[in-house]
User: Fold MlaD family protein from Hymenobacter glaciei.
Amino acid sequence: MSKEIKVGLLAIVAIAALVIGYNFLRGSNVLSSDRTYFATYPKVDGLNVGAIVVLNGIKVGQVKSMELEPTKGNSVRVALELDKELVVGDSTTASLGGTLLGSKGITLTLGKNSKNYNGGEEIRTVTPSSIADAFQAKALPVLDTVGATLANINGFLNKDAQTNIQGTLLGARASAEALQKLLVANQANINTITRNLAQMSTALNKTTGKLDKIAVNFSQLSDSLKNAPVGPALRRLNATLADAQTTVKSLNTALNDQSGSMGKLLHDSTLYRNLTATTAASNDLLVDFKANPKRYVHFSVFGGGKDKSKVETTKKPDGSTTTEVKKVDGASTVK
Assistant:
């Protein structure tokens, strides 16, 4: 084989490799057996050759080429290279969309086909409104409103209003300067207040430690009370109260029982009348003793004496009185 033939074959291989590599870098696989379909859009802003074609978020192909069609209103005919295993039919739609980063792509939507395509057919297209169009539709009324508001503000701010605003700003500046002078003049007081706040914070920290100790003591006291034999003490107290209640009930029964001594003492009126009569007789005896002491006591200096008599008055329970004279044989003698 001559050198010329070798050089020619090498040039052919290099050119073929260059074409295949160029198409591969553009996203088109020359050796691929994928099927090609077409989709026509009014415009394809940002769509490039090699852009991905996705179905349910999975890449199923890529944009093979794009060409302008002047005879159809300058619409763009896009060639889509799709996997041959993908079933495409008359219900399939190709929607042109993009991400927030600006990259464009085509999204396929499959449906129930009445006719399946084998490649080379035209796929129905859907062109949703872009984000820029939606933003422009929303922003234009807002911009008009802002422009009208600014115009109203410019009309309101005449020379007098501007003068008043300038005076207000000057007054605010003077107030700020006066406040600055006041702060400088009272810097010592501010420093003192700051130190007092620091000391107060230190004291609060120390008090916090004491409060922690108090909390620990209360916790220990609570644990002690929890572990204390409160239950047995309460049971003994309940037993004592029950005994006291039984004793009080027995005493109440005894007091209400008129056949007993205490019941008779409380409910029998005869004892009461006898006590009343005895008291009255004692009072009469004391009165008579004070009035006539010689009837009851006789003094003799030399011993002995004459027989004396005494009168005794007795008051009966029914209120009547009886008088009785008794003879006394002797008397007391004082030596």
